[in-house]
Design goal:
The protein is mainly β and 192 residues long. Helix content is 0%, strand content 47%. Strands 1-4-13-6-7-8-9 form a 7-stranded antiparallel beta sheet, with no helix packed on it. The two termini are 14 Å apart.
Length: 192
């Protein structure tokens, strides 16, 4: 159903429009990309909160995770609550996305770039983390991979749709990585 990907938690389905719909079961959903891409890569695409859960809606990625997710690496997640929208990267500080609306049913673009032991993240063209140092994380650069995920232990049954996913290895530091001024960070991806 989803060549190159493996379900670990939740329910994942390819949709007729080429998108991937993830449904949390008991608050968990994880879909692993089988390719091991190392510690220098970028992943871009779009996510959409499909239905409103009263307390929390979530979509995200696992970065630099080990095969079969035995080591979870670092979590990048987007939380949508009634009172605020947050982005969190691993155990780094939580950023409140002032002025950024994440409405249910609206497509939101993301671009996550990992170069060696630093990460830059854009949401809807806006940099929310810039060259954040994650060198304290236990990341095996040779076996690193990525996964789509969301995780809350509160038993919430939220849904998130992903579109236009593109994952690629990086051979050199990306343009604007250390300044958060990537010129194409706000471009959408073609659904696939």
């Amino acid at each position: 159903d989803l060549p190159g990907w493996r379900t670990h938690e939740g329910e994942w389905q390819a949709q007729a429009d080429g998108s991937i719909l993830g449904k949390a079961v008991g608050g968990e959903m994880t879909l692993e990309c089988k390719a091991l891409i190392g510690d220098s890569f970028e992943i871009r695409g779009e996510f959409e909160f499909v239905k409103d859960v009263e307390r929390l809606n979530q979509a995200g990625l696992l970065l630099a995770c080990a095969p079969d997710l035995k080591e979870r690496g670092m979590r990048f997640r987007i939380d949508k609550r009634r009172e605020r929208n947050n982005v969190e990267l691993g155990n780094l500080e939580r950023d409140v996305m002032g002025g950024v609306t994440l409405a249910t049913g609206t497509r939101n673009r993301f671009l996550v770039q990992m170069w060696k032991r630093k990460v830059t993240v854009y949401v809807n063209g806006r940099p929310v983390y810039i060259a954040s140092d994650v060198s304290n994380r236990d990341i095996d650069s040779v076996k690193a991979g990525v996964a789509l995920c969301a995780s809350r232990k509160q038993g919430l049954n939220y849904e998130a749709r992903y579109r236009g996913l593109q994952v690629r290895r990086l051979a050199e530091m990306p343009e604007g990585f250390e300044t958060g001024q990537r010129t194409d960070a706000s471009k959408g991806s073609e659904p696939r």
